[in-house]
Amino acid sequence: MLFDIQEELKKLPHKPGVYIMRDDRDVILYVGKAIDLRNRVRSYFRENVGRGPAIDKMIALIARFEYIVTDSELEALVLENNLIKEHSPKYNTLLKDDKTYPYIKVTMGEEYPRILFSRTMKKDKSRYFGPYTSAAAVKDTIDLLNKLYSLRTCNRNLPKDAGKERPCLNYHIKQCLGPCQGYVSPEEYRRQVAGALEFLNGNYSPILKELETKMLAASEQMEFEEAASYRDLYNSVKQVSQKQKITDSVGEDKDVLALYQDEGEAVVQVFFVRDGKLIGREHYYMTNVSENNKPGILQEFVKQFYAGTPFIPRELMLQYEIEDAELIEKWLSERKGSRVYLRVPKIGSKEKLVELAAQNAKLVLSQDREKLKREEGRTIGAVKEIADLLGLEHIYRMEAFDISNISGFENVGSMVVFEKGKPKSSDYRKFRIKTVTGPDDYACMREVLTRRFVHGMERTKELENPETDRDLDSFTRFPDLIMMDGGRGQVNIALEVLKELGLDIPVCGMVKDDNHRTRGLYFNNVELPIDTRSEGFKLITRIQDEAHRFAIEYHRSLRSKGQVKSVLDDIPGVGPARRKALMRHFASLEDIRNATLEQLLEIPEMNRRVAEEILAFLQQKV
């Protein structure tokens, strides 16, 4: 289904948020933020107004866009940062030093805690607040809290180093309680820290009121520099006090689930939070839903979605209480191998994040109802058709393989991945064949499949209990179905490799007719015809074309870089250095073939064993 850009532009809301530009392979080109999504995104598709060649080139590549609505421009800013760091889009300006937004760190693991500025958030005993968008405002706030609550700013190891040195200037000017001298007990000091924590947890009113009072008093007394100082502190505190939900200072993995239902249809929106940062979202269309039973719809989604997803986070934040929460918690914990929590937040930033997910679900359903139905049929529905045709209970991930060669010398293999009927280009892999000389597709396919699954098995052993889904790679996730570009021969090769490795994965062949067009599937020694008008057939064709395209593009890449494999590369002992030396010494491959052993040994990089290998190999090629 084509994405009608002009039609989708009409549906954009006048709200703050983040927009994501994608190309025809669903690769993210650009991530941006907007205070008004409609005005900002529409500006890209107007006539050229001096944007520059790079932006014009990007716009020419845009096949579709998507967006996430937020409650404020600040949230859009933080979400934009998270998505850019997660996906590194080609057309975004990227920070090479990987700096991020600042946090306020309270070192609760120390007997006398300190309040510090931090650019990173670690899993330690400290408490983190943020992230914030202004480093200067954070530093001002830390300075203010230290002064208000008389907290220490030194890095002495207390109480171990207590009394070893004289108290610093802050103690003498009454801006520190002097824990370095034992002048304050840990309990009394912690009470002061508790006041600072109350501020950082959101109780800003007392400090803001006090600063405003001092600012006005200084102004009335015509102490304008002092009033300006209080004003700047007031503005810094106001900036730090702005709420945002896009990043969670706890730094855990969680999914946020909310739905919107209308006219017997429902969309579930899932926000994916990894390491405390919202890095992406997906929406899912629910059919055959009952009226007035949103908790039941959400429960069914949780059961079906997490039965097939390869990674389960530590926490699911749900919009509603579900009936079988305790049972589902136990089931998910067993699947993950560690405790999983189902929670329904009632207050605070977590509850606001669930509300934001619900708001985005409402937008999706109200604006894209018909498109969702077509998209579901094209992807998830098509996968179900294929599963039904093959008699398989469930298909989530499909991998397709193809072999191509260049002039009989360069054999390459391609692996493309589709999940839930959509291409997952980040998991695509290319293989340069190492063990096969000449055009032998069966031998090449055996090498590709063996390398793919042996690597996956070895990597899986290293990651018996992956902490996050980022620990997994394209090889550790095994497919539910392998699709070979060919019929009986290619399928049998795959089955032999799987049997040797002790793996049980269904394999089917995508059979072509005399015109090189897909006509059916070869499965369990039978060719299964398929309706060429069905979505399942169209998906098979897309997968087959994608595997072929990916291999062809690899060939083009090799040719464009001058990397087409020379016949010399097939000779044991001849690497890049010796190949260059041979081509410098002899005018052509024919001259090398006609050379004597003594002539080859004239080359400084050559030794007798390799020279003999060259002569023996080239004589076989005559």
Set down the secondary structure blueprint.
Blueprint: H1 5-9, E1 17-22, E2 28-34, H2 37-43, H3 53-61, E3 64-69, H4 73-87, E4 103-106, E5 115-118, E6 127-129, H5 135-149, H6 169-172, H7 186-200, H8 205-220, H9 224-240, E7 254-262, E8 265-274, E9 277-286, H10 294-308, E10 315-318, H11 325-336, E11 341-343, H12 348-378, H13 380-390, E12 397-406, E13 410-419, E14 422-423, E15 429-432, H14 441-462, E16 481-484, H15 488-501, E17 507-512, E18 518-523, E19 526-529, H16 535-560, H17 576-585, H18 589-593, H19 597-601, H20 608-620
Helix pairs in contact: 5-9, 8-9, 12-13, 13-16, 14-15
Describe, in plain words, how this protein is organized in 3D.
The chain contains 20 helices and 19 strands. By secondary structure, the protein is α+β, with helices and mostly antiparallel strands. It folds into five domains: 5-87, GIY-YIG endonuclease; 103-240, no CATH class; 254-377, Nucleotidyltransferase, domain 5; 385-560, Nucleotidyltransferase, domain 5 (2-Layer Sandwich); 567-620, 5' to 3' exonuclease, C-terminal subdomain (DNA polymerase, domain 1), CATH 1.10.150. Helix 13 (380-390) packs across helix 16 (535-560) and helix 14 (441-462) packs parallel to helix 15.
Which terms would index this structure?
alpha+beta; GIY-YIG endonuclease; Nucleotidyltransferase, domain 5; 5 domains; eight-stranded mixed sheet; five-stranded mixed sheet; 20 helices
